[in-house]
Amino acid sequence: MATVVGNLSSPFLLSQLGNSRSCFLKLRPCATLSVFKRSFAAAIKVRAAASAAAVEVEPTEPIVVQNDGNSSNNILACPICYDPFSSSGDPGLSVESASGSSFHCSTCKKTYFGNETHIDLTTASGAKSYGESMPVITEMFRTPLISYLYERGWRQSFTGLIGLPGPEKEFEWTKNFLKPVLGGGNIIDASCGSGLFSRRFAKSGLFSLVVALDYSENMLKECYGFIQQEENFPTENIILVRADISRLPFATSSVDAVHAGAALHCWPSPSAAVAEISRVLRPGGVFVASTYILDGRFSLIPFLRNITRVTKQISGSQVFTSESEFEDLCQACGLVGFTKVRYGLFVMISATKPT
User: Fold this and answer.
1) What is the pairing mode between strands 209-214 and 186-190?
2) Rounded to an integer, what distance in angstroms lies between the CA atom of residue 125 and that of residue 301?
3) pLDDT per residue as tens digits for the range 76-113
4) Helix runs in 150-269, H state only
């Protein structure tokens, strides 16, 4: 699927609904863009019990991330053939360099372009007539109204309803899981939405490059707008990329960490997405993701699996009903050292790429 915005969703409504040949890139200075301002009224009625106590699980023992000597910032690659884009000197990836930038793959003979807000690295980028029908959940988050609402009440509405801990606590847990790879590498904030966590990663100084990645053009525009509004924001260490979570535009074994906040359930094929994440992670790289889970008392609901299957068919959203699903998913995609944190219905998981 296309990368979709990380959102926790209602269980029975549409979810709240992401060796090589030479390539060349060219970067130019950028201009600024004023963010879209739109209003939208949304009402979500969800009733789910949430525990107030959190059970924290420490990450596995520290793992040394293997680096092949290439720049941790020179990670962009053609989403078709996965050959990395190369350039003479520092490619200078940043928010400011996106506008007017171009990335040429000499293998596929295709050029990708950046606009004022982000770099479009989807496989269908540049197509004039061709278009694809995406799941309802994906298209929902591509709309300007939902994108505008996301950090203006949408996400906050789930804090008390299904036990969403809130961004500050989630960020602390995420940093705890990322300890083995902290210290100047790169991180992909997959299905970043309007950049709620991407901006935190950038301001934390924990990584030399933060890639805010989403399939929704309007979410990336919102992210850009928030960055421009914030005084003294470190724009030099963050880039915004439009891409498909099941076709990540990064070189194999080039990424130190991938974070997907409240997004796992939004991916039409979590296994395809996690397999791609496993591909791009360096040996020892860390994957951290969060979502919701309907277990415990919800397991008593008659025909729960049938209901979740229908939800998946209609909306494209995955509904998880047991913790074992997450560990199985990670292991099936080549990740090890699975661990988790629970907070009511909210669950944060982590696994690593074997060394």
Assistant:
1) parallel
2) 44
3) 999 999 998 865 334 568 998 888 899 999 999 999 99
4) 167-178, 196-204, 217-229
pTM comes to 0.79
Mean pLDDT taken over the chain: 81
Q: CA 310 → CA 13, 115, 140, 313, distances in Å?
A: 11, 38, 18, 5
Burial status of residue 280 (CB atoms within 10 A of its CB: 0-12, 13-18, 19 or more): buried
Asked if pLDDT for residue 47 goes beyond 70, the answer is no
Residue 175, SS3 per DSSP: helix
Q: Which residue ranges form the domains of the chain, and what is each CATH number?
A: 35-79+136-352 (3.40.50.150)
Residue whose pair of structure tokens reads 């996301």 in the numeric block: 150
Length of the chain measured in residues: 355
The strand pair at 281-292 and 255-260 is best described as parallel
The helix (H) or strand (E) run that includes residue 255 is: strand 255-260
Ramachandran region, residue 205 (left: φ > 0; alpha: ψ -120 to 50; beta: rest):
left
pLDDT tens-digit profile of 212-235? 999 999 999 999 999 999 999 999
